[in-house]
Specification:
Shape: extended
Helix content: 10-25%
Strand content: 35-45%
Distance between the termini: 35 Å
């Protein structure tokens, strides 16, 4: 067995990926008032996790463990509120499209994965969300795509006369599955 070589380790590690170098590319199925500028409002987030459930089968009196169903965690993003609160309004409009509580208490915004209608209505509340981990020079290291995503929770926006911080709120996305991809 070869000994530990610090120079080999340093060259393969190359400084590591930094937690503060990331970008969200939102895909909102409603009017995105801010367009590409929405990406700049992200305060913090994470790359989503997943789990493979354990199935235990008894065989000849012993427990045999094997892989079961793969489940995907929810994804959270914390956003800074822009001057006109457009990001919050856009996300609230998305939730209103899912459940129209103001007029008819209706869930009729198409089926979750329906195609766009001839009239231009999206007809779906699912979308793809992309998070990118960036390198030191801004190059994309990896992209995580969340498929069939929708906002399942939008948190409160704390307001405080004693604070000079920008207002923030959190959004929780539920989705079908995600994929990591090299660029």
């Amino acid at each position: 067995m070869a000994g530990f070589d610090l120079n080999s380790f340093k060259s393969s590690f190359d400084g590591g990926a930094r937690a503060y170098l990331f970008m969200w590319q939102p895909d909102l199925p409603v009017q995105n008032t801010l367009g590409d500028a929405t990406s700049y409002l992200v305060k913090s987030s994470s790359l989503p996790g997943d789990t493979v459930d354990e199935i235990i089968v008894t065989w000849q009196g012993a427990d045999y463990k094997m892989a079961g169903r793969r489940t995907f965690d929810v994804w959270n993003v914390s956003l800074n509120v822009d001057r006109n609160s457009a990001i919050r309004k856009d996300l609230d409009a998305w939730m209103a499209k899912i459940h129209k509580i103001d007029t008819s208490n209706d869930y009729s915004y198409g089926t979750p994965g329906a195609e766009a209608s001839p009239t231009g209505d999206v007809g779906t509340y699912f979308s793809q969300q992309k998070m990118q981990l960036l390198g030191y020079s801004g190059e994309v290291i990896t992209t995580v795509t969340l498929y069939g995503a929708w906002p399942s929770a939008i948190s409160e926006m704390a307001l405080d006369y004693q604070s000079i911080d920008v207002a923030t709120f959190d959004v929780t996305f539920t989705y079908q599955y995600h994929e990591f991809a090299d660029v």
